[in-house]
Amino acid sequence: MESKQVKHELFVSKVKNVFGSGAEKILEGILHPRYETFRINLRKSGVGEALETLRMLGFEIKEGPVPGSFINLSSINDLKISQTDLFKKGILYVQGLSSMLGVVVLDPKPDDKVMDLCASPGSKTSFMATLTGVPKNIYAVESNSGRFYSMKKNLAMQGYPDVVTVKANAAGLLNRYPVFREAFDRVLVDVPCSNEGNVRFSAPDPLKFWNPKLPKKISMLQKKILASGYGMLKPGGYMVYSTCTYSFEENESVINWALKKFPDLDVMKINSRVKNLKYLKGLTEYKGEETDPRISNTMRILPDNYFDGFFISLLQRRPAGAR
After folding, report:
1. Is 292 annotated as a binding residue?
2. Into how many domains does the chain fold?
3. Pairing relation of β-strands 138-142 and 114-117?
4. Coil, strand or helix: which one is 119?
C-alpha cells in the first residue's frame, strides 16, 4: 500500500504533467477548501425571502458567478447551509458551481426533451427542471438501486416528482429502450470519473480514494456512455460531456475518440455566461499525442475558492444533410 506521502508526490507529479507551467496555480488553488455554494428552489421560495431568512440566521451570502448560484461566505466559520431547515425542506440545494456550470452550458429550453445520464443524486437534473420549468420533459438515468431511489426521493423533495426516472445502465440504455434513439434535443453526459478535480489538500486524507491507475480503466466506460448519449441525440441536438477530473485520458482523449467514431459530431465554442472564469482551453497535444484541433473549444475549469477542477465540452450532432 502506498504511503500518503508517496501518493501526494504522485498526484503533484500528475498535475505538473497535465498543466505544465500552470501547475503551481492548480496546486495553490486546492490548498484550501472551497466555499459552500447553493441554489434557491424557486418552486418553494422567492429569492429575497430565502436570503433574508439566511441573513437572520447569521449567514453572509453573496450572489455567485454562475446564473442562479449563491455563495455562503460564512462556511469558513462553520455555518453550513446544509444544516438549516431551509435545506432540509428542499428550499435550498447545495451544489458546486462547476457542477451547475455544466447545466448552464447545455442550456436546456422548456420545449426540449432532455436526457441526463448518470443522474444521481439529481443535482443537475433538478437544476435543469428549475431552468426549463417543464420537469416532465427531463429523463434521469441511474443504474445503482440505492442511488436511484435516493435520487427519486431527492427530486420529490425538490418538488420535481414528475421527472421521468429510469433505473438502467447508461452504457446499454438503447438496447433496453430503443425508443430513445435520436429522441432527445439535449443530453447531459456527466460521467463517473477519477474525481481529481475534487481533491483539496485541506481535507484530512485528500487522496484516500485517488487511484492513479483508474483513468485508463474508466475511460473505456466513459466512451461507452458518451456513445450511448450520442445515439439518443437528435440530429442538430446538443450534448455536454463533462468530468470533475484532470486526466487527459478521461477528457480530451475521450472527445478525440468520439470525433473519429462519429463524423457528424462537432465541438462547439462555449459561452459559460460567467465573468472572469478561470479556465484553460482543452489540450490539443499531450505526451506526444495530438488531438483534433476542435478540442481547443473545450474548457478546463481551474480550481479556486469557488470552483472545483472540471472539464466541459459542448458537442453538437450536425443537422441532417449538413456537412
Report:
1. no
2. 1
3. parallel
4. coil
Q: State the cell numbers at 312.
A: 466541459
**Element (DSSP H or E) covering residue 215:** helix 214-232
Cα separation, 138 vs 296, whole angstroms: 30
Q: For residues 215 and 245, is the Cβ–Cβ distance under 8 A?
A: yes
Q: What is the mean pLDDT of the chain?
A: 95
pLDDT tens digits for range 188-233: 999 999 999 999 999 999 999 999 999 999 999 999 999 999 999 9
Tell me the three cell numbers of residue 244. Answer: 470533475
Q: Has 190 been labeled as part of a binding site?
A: yes
Tell me if residue 244 is catalytic.
Answer: yes
Rounded to the nearest angstrom, the gap between the alpha carbon of residue 175 and the centroid of all alpha carbons in its chain is 25
Which of the 8 DSSP states describes residue 90?
T
Active-site hit among 189, 244, 299, 315: 244
User: Could you tell me if residue 59 is inside a domain?
Assistant: no
- The angle formed by the CA atoms of residues 271, 274 and 280, to the nearest 5 degrees, is 70
CA dist 61 and 257 (Å) reads 43
The residue segments making up the domain with residue 180 are 97-317
Q: Tell me how far CA of residue 168 lies from CA of 155, 162, 228, 274, 280, in angstroms.
A: 17, 18, 12, 34, 35
Residue 101's CATH number: 3.40.50.150
